[in-house]
């Protein structure tokens, strides 16, 4: 029997129960209960995808200052719809059916939250995008 739902939830890192309360909006609860753990789980894959993005764009990223690298990360996620959709797929693919049902009811707002978290995570790991840093440093 396929126990996909339980396996997905068990694989996720646990987050503090304090980050989820009854007076939160549905979107905020979904963000803290689902998006954050899934994005944390997928972090090495998201970093690998961005490293590939840099390579496919002729490594221009490596010639930029730290400030411009942070802007490059933001712009790549905001403006490159193909890349943005790829990142969303990496995250949505880790949802349970129930979570997906919640997601599709307000996907526009949840996509914004999702991409903001991904952007911040990539920016927090900007040092991993140096040419000589291996991806195993993330894991």
The radius of gyration computed from the alpha-carbon positions, rounded to a whole number of angstroms, is 16 Å
Major beta-sheet overview: none
Using the alpha-carbon principal axes, give the shape.
Answer: elongated
Strand composition percent: under 5%
What share of the residues lie within helices? 55-70%
- Low-pLDDT runs: none
Q: Please state the average pLDDT score.
A: 91
Q: State the end-to-end distance.
A: 31 Å
DSSP summary, beta strand count = 0
Main traits of this protein?
mainly alpha, 0% strand, single chain, elongated, 139 residues, 6 helices
Structure write-up:
- With 139 residues, this protein is mainly α.
- It has one domain (26-131).
- It contains six helices and no strands.
- Helix 2 (26-56) packs across helix 4.
- The model has no long low-confidence stretch (mean pLDDT 91).
The gist of it:
This protein has 139 residues and is mainly α.
Reconstruct the topology from this structure.
Layout (H helix, E strand, L loop, with lengths): L3 H8 L14 H31 L9 H14 L1 H12 L4 H9 L1 H18 L15
């Amino acid at each position: 029997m396929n126990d996909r739902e339980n396996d997905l939830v068990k694989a996720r890192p646990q987050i503090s129960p304090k980050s989820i309360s009854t007076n939160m909006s549905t979107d905020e609860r979904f963000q803290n209960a689902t998006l954050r753990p899934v994005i944390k789980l997928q972090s090495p894959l998201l970093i690998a995808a961005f490293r590939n993005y840099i390579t496919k764009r002729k490594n221009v990223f490596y010639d930029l200052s730290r400030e411009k690298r942070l802007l490059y990360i933001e712009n790549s996620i905001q403006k490159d719809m193909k890349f943005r959709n790829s990142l969303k797929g990496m995250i949505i693919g880790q949802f349970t059916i129930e979570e997906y049902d919640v997601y599709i009811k307000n996907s526009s707002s949840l996509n914004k939250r999702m991409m903001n978290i991904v952007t911040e995570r990539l920016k927090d790991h900007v040092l991993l995008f140096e040419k000589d840093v291996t991806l195993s440093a993330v894991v």
